[in-house]
Amino acid sequence: MLEWLKFNSRIWFFLGFIGCVFLLAMGAYFQFVGGLDPCPLCISQRIAILLTGLVFLSAAIHNPGQTGVTAYAVSGAVTALCGAAISTRHVWIQHLPPDKVPECGPGLDYVLQNFPLFETVKLMLSGTGDCAKVDWTLLGFSMPAWTLLAFLMLASLSLLQIWNDSHAE
């Protein structure tokens, strides 16, 4: 019944890569066409999408055997779940009461130029008041909520390749 889903893992990894490209393109569209400036957590999520996409592209190009598929699948799931953790924090910040929202910090450009890399990464992952602002929704869900869903789907797609490849004919 589900034989049409039984592409080999190489095709699924490539489709996952295309999904990541689409997500990055949407982020660029909202930033450059829609005028929505990304907050530190948004940028962190884009980095996680990029890393997940690179793992998927590597797996699709490499076309490894079962051991390699498992390694790529776990790597893709880990990068996607790291992105999901960032998205979860972002959604949590957006749902805080206004008096509990972290204060807005300096711009990311300023932080990159004046602070060590570790401090910059810490700021990007902790979020600021800018991260609490909801500029866009679809069906009542904010962009970080949709990104969280996308990360969970990418992690699932990645891990399913272990099963897909081990049952390939």
UniProtKB/TrEMBL annotation:
Q: Does the keyword Thylakoid apply?
A: no
Q: Which InterPro entries match?
A: DiS_bond_form_DsbB/BdbC (IPR003752), Disulphide_bond_form_DsbB (IPR022920), DsbB (IPR050183), DsbB-like_sf (IPR023380)
**Periplasmic compartment segments:** 30-47
Cytoplasmic-side positions:
1-12, 65-70, 165-169
> What membrane topology is given?
Multi-pass membrane protein
Cysteine pairs bridged by disulfides in the record: C39-C42
- What are the BP-aspect GO terms? protein folding
One Pfam family per UniProt: DsbB
Q: Which UniProt keywords apply?
A: Cell inner membrane, Cell membrane, Chaperone, Disulfide bond, Electron transport, Membrane, Oxidoreductase, Redox-active center, Transmembrane, Transmembrane helix, Transport
GO MF terms, alphabetically ordered: electron transfer activity; protein-disulfide reductase activity
Localization per Swiss-Prot or TrEMBL:
Cell inner membrane; Cell membrane
A GO cellular component annotation here is: plasma membrane
Q: Which Gene3D superfamilies match?
A: DsbB-like
Broad class of where this protein is predominantly found: membrane
- Transmembrane stretches in the record are 12-31, 43-62, 69-92, 143-163
> What protein family is recorded?
Belongs to the DsbB family.
Sum up the protein's function in the record's words: Required for disulfide bond formation in some periplasmic proteins. Acts by oxidizing the DsbA protein.
What protein name applies here? Answer: Disulfide bond formation protein B
